[in-house]
Specification:
This protein is mainly α and 276 residues long. The protein is built from nine helices and no strands.
């Protein structure tokens, strides 16, 4: 039986560097890049449904087209704006939520009941909550998802079980996304802490070698030869012995203190044991 290899798609086009996110230090931006692609695909789905299906079930086709144009324009604007970390502020996210809710509510004014089961924004509405979950946290993301869900279910004449299901799934997925992002941030913080600890220990080992090869050998020589120089030599030998013992204690110390950014510590008390 001949062997063969199944080549699966690599999705290399989803790499952040290929879709405009080239800052290697912006780790959340890489997650956001994937979210932008997903929301863009959901937006294309909403546009296709609006222009090829919903428009035939309404007597206000211009309203449907106008709402679809607003969806496209706003998606391009907000997705491009949030590329820059300085622009990822809560007012920008609230504005995204406002436009999303407006598109949901406009559906009731332009489409008769049953004409657009998921509103003119379709599944695209989950994008504002996903963006908030990535940059603002799980609470913001879930809060945005609840607001969009309330807008979906808030018009009795347009209530459908499909909207209820979409609202439920959106809240659950956004909550999961928020928790994953928090775990991602915690992992990055732990790795950075370990990297700093390893760097500190490596630097301490380097200094230990320098001290051991230089200062400790000199002190040992003074301690050994001092008594032959008389009274002053004995005193120098005693001082050298004490200094050598203190240096050896410092060289054997492998404790690396870890302090939170917002925690206050008594630096004088920490340095007290090194006062000699």
């Amino acid at each position: 039986m001949s062997e063969f290899t199944v080549r699966l798609p690599s999705f290399s086009w989803l790499r952040p560097t290929r879709i405009g996110f080239r800052d290697p230090t912006d780790l959340l931006g890489r997650v956001y890049a994937v979210a932008v692609v997903a929301r863009s695909l959901l937006g294309l789905h909403a546009v296709f449904v609006n222009l090829f299906f919903v428009v035939h079930y309404t007597d206000r086709p211009l309203g449907v087209v106008a709402a679809t144009a607003v969806l496209i324009a706003w998606h391009v604007f907000i997705s491009w704006r949030l590329r820059v970390p300085a622009h990822r502020t809560w007012p920008a996210h609230v504005a995204d939520l406002g436009v999303t809710v407006a598109l949901i509510l406009v559906t009731a004014l332009t489409v008769p009941p049953g004409g657009a089961p998921l509103s003119l924004a379709g599944y695209w509405i989950g994008g504002c909550a996903a963006y908030a979950a990535i940059f603002l946290g799980t609470r913001w993301g879930v809060g945005f998802a609840l607001v969009t869900s309330a807008a979906l279910l808030g018009v009795p004449s347009h209530f459908e079980l499909q909207r209820l299901g979409a609202a439920f799934v959106t809240v659950i997925l956004i909550a999961c996304l928020g928790v994953l992002i928090e775990q991602f941030r915690a992992t990055l913080a732990e790795r950075e802490e370990e990297r700093a600890r390893a760097g500190a220990l490596a630097e301490r080992a380097r200094l230990s070698r320098i001290v051991h090869d230089g200062a400790l050998q000199v002190l040992a020589l003074v301690e050994r030869e001092g008594p032959t120089l008389g009274g002053r030599g004995v005193l120098l030998a005693e001082l050298a012995r004490e200094s050598e013992a203190q240096l050896r204690v410092l060289l054997q110390d492998r404790e690396i203190a870890t302090v939170e950014d917002t925690e206050r510590v008594d630096l004088a008390a920490t340095l007290h044991r090194y006062e000699s």
